Amino acid sequence: EETPQTVLVTGGAGFIGANFILQARGAQWYNVVNLDKLTYASNLQNLTALENDSGYRFVRGDIGDPELVSHLLEQYQPDAVINFAAESHVDRSILNPLSFALTNVTGTLQLLETCRAYWQKLPLHKHERFRFLQVSTDEVYGSLGKTDLPFCENNPYEPNSPYAASKAGADHFVRAYYHTYGLPTLITNCSNNYGPRQFPEKLIPLTILNAMEGQLLPIYGDGQNIRDWLYVSDHCEALHLVLQQGKVGETYCIGGQNEQTNLMVVEKICTILDELLPSKPNFSHSSLITFVKDRPGHDRRYAIDCTKMNRELGWKPTESFDSGLLKTVQWYINHPQWVEQIRTGAYQSWIEQNYTDRTANYL
Ligand code: NAD
Ligand code: TDX
């Protein structure tokens, strides 16, 4: 298989996108153009290591801006687009569902439409190798009972949260663009990611930072909801394989083969912190655990069967949960400035000061 030379990555200033770009440039997979709107969840500090990398460009903008996106496609002639851009936090989707429809559904549709126009005009050799990869989630499949089989590629979509519904809507448009227009699309449905650079509203980084600061550790409901956790670099490796070797029009389920109750996850983090940052004698960070009101519509269990990824692309998760979690905790301990910039809002003000005029940054 031919490897694409240039990839347009959207949402690359967020958690998974930034890890993906760092990995892609580190391993010289391809040149990367990163289009990101820089919402609250973004962090350009994730990518400072690439400041002098001639194979990397950053552009601030919205996937739903056809003028900007077609300009970028013409300018950089990418062989693939990987769409990470999204509103990604379930709790926020419950408070403000409309913004999820706007970016995840309408934004993705607009991106597809702009890509279609570009792809249709490409010379044959580029036209044939072009790919649109949609980075999606296992949450579109709904919730599993204790004894249900894990989700796989043929499960029906049964989204339960506004976030999941918006990702499902996006995935359906991607599918429709393949069937209707022949746009060479790929979809991945991945389980919960964790690792360095995740915004501290998600369970794992929130727990790490709260525990470090001696604040309470909120656990929704009874703490027995189950998630399948995958270390982010394993996800990025899987995305690279799907992009290179995945069959056009198909879906790939990606998971960590690592089901954990939320309570177990939080306890493991506390145990790690007890060892790395012993404070008072006889104090355990787990004494900060506090059970709070449940998330409305809270899915009970997610699990992924990644047989297809293994059989067809030879992929499997490599990082163990204990080692991945230890590395994650160490990363947050070693990046107090990253944490402080986010916690104090300093990063958000910096964006506003530095990126007032969109056009000035891309033309
Ligand atoms: P994130 O919230 O950390 O990052 C999202 C990024 O997208 C941010 O940098 C944000 O500025 C950018 N963005 C938002 N709206 C945009 C727009 N309209 N135009 C351009 N950029 C925009 O999210 P993440 O956790 O890195 O997730 C990335 C993708 O992977 C999402 O599509 C998410 O649905 C999917 N996913 C996430 C997980 C997970 O566990 N985090 C699991 C499976 C799938
Ligand atoms: O404070 C908390 N307490 C708590 O018990 C938070 C923030 C979460 N939880 C629970 C809710 C979930 O059962 O922990 C679990 C994980 O919660 P999140 O980190 O919010 O992730 P989740 O809702 O599972 O969704 C994530 O995985 C799939 C990502 O945010 C999505 O973008 C991805 O698609």
Distance between the termini: 34 Å
Residue-averaged pLDDT? 95
Query: What is the molecular shape?
Result: globular
β-sheet strand percentage: 15-25%
Describe this structure as you would to a colleague:
- The chain is of the alpha/beta class.
- The chain has 14 helices and twelve strands.
- Strands 3-2-1-4-5-6-10 form a seven-stranded parallel β-sheet, sandwiched between helices.
- Strand 1 (6-10), helix 1 (15-26) and strand 2 form a beta-alpha-beta unit.
- Helix 7 (203-212) runs parallel beside helix 9 (262-276) and helix 7 packs across helix 11.
- The protein starts with 5 loop residues before the first strand and ends with a helix.
- The model is unreliable at 357-363 (pLDDT under 50).
- The structure holds nicotinamide-adenine-dinucleotide and thymidine-5'-diphospho-beta-D-xylose.
- Thymidine-5'-diphospho-beta-D-xylose binds at residues 88-90, 137, 139, 192, 202-203, 206, 218-220, 225, 227, 262, 295.
